[in-house]
Amino acid sequence: MRIKIVLPFILASVTVLPSGLARADSQTTSVTVPVLLDHNRMLVDAQLQRPDGSWRKARLWIDSGNPECFISEPLARDLGYDLSAKQDNAELRQLEVPSPGGVRLGGLQLDFTGVAAKVLYQPQWVFNTMHIDANLPSTVLSRYHVIFDYPQRKLTLARPGSIKPRGIRAAAQVHPKTGIVQIDAVVAGQKLSFALDNGASYSFVSEDILTDLYSKNSSWPQSKGAVGCANIWGWWPGEDSWQIVRIPEIQWGSVPLRGVGLVGLPGFFPGNTSLGEWYSQKTLHPVAGILGPNAYNAYRVEIDYRGKSVYFSQRAEPAQHDMDLVGLTLQPQESGAYLVIGVSEINGKPVVPGVQPGDRLLQIDELKTTGATMGTVVDALRGRPGETRTLTLERDEQSFKIVARVKRFL
Fold it and tell me: Which CATH number fits domain 3-141: 2.40.70, 3.30.60, 3.30.230, 3.90.920?
């Protein structure tokens, strides 16, 4: 299968067929491909090679915050992995396997050599809610010069040194083994460091840090309960009660990021550690948390791993209405259904009267939610404050409808 390439952004070294398609070539130095944005996450279509040499399409989740490659069971079977260990252990949740062999993105052969890989049996909803087959981890991304162009919805991967960077430069630190990037920041006069994690759906920090920041800046907009893209997947403890604060400005290196929503996560990580403590195990220096796409999705973000630099080019206005929606916290199920686990409150009153935790969300206006991606479901809840959405829900095997209003939470 050949993948269509966006020609204006490809260097001349790409072999272009008369039909306008690019063939994978060992001499290719740069390739630009379109991406889908779902729940703030970048998804891209690539090709993986089967044992017989044929190629199959696979949708990958671009994940700059995760050094491991994880693979769905159907993809693993098609690629010929030995999965017999699962037959001997029905409770097996993941299986370590060799890193994928042939992987190509447009005309570029990707280097997965030595990358830790595993078949992820559980949780299956990770694949279902994004409709993906695998991820493209930080360990692979760090071998290239990378451009995440959010406004244009494009991804560029290039061999180091083949592209001249452009934009406002921010000095970065890169962990030599995990490939995770971090940039030092200043928030309300306080020095903090954040990892650049475009695989996340939102920006997150240790709860105590956000609590301290808000105690000194109580005029900042804030709300309780993870809604929108702050609703990671509903399987993290307490998502329905997390605090979200709109930070007027985060000076991230030399770049002022404005109106960034930041969520405070409690210490539920292994060993009861904070987000910062846990995440710092895979960064070069300690971090307070991560900045996800909501912080920089108005930018073209260019990462020069070899030069330890990130370049920012603003191409749109920062989104200030990403928290205008119906206030439900959702949890995707293995079946593809969505369970309501929280209803946001304003002044102690639920913003969606008649909906309870435990209800199944079946439909939003005309959208049937079961089997839809989480980004599609969340986007259907968005709108202008005061607009209504008709929700079809199920409780005790009985379906019912609620007319819910869109609210502004930040």
Answer: 2.40.70
Residue type for 197, please? D
CATH architecture of the domain 324-408 equals: Roll (2.30)
Q: Where in the chain is the domain with CATH 2.40.70?
A: 3-141, 168-296
Per-residue model confidence as pLDDT tens digits over 363-386 = 999 999 999 999 999 999 999 999
**97-125 residue pLDDT tens:** 999 999 999 989 999 999 999 999 999 89
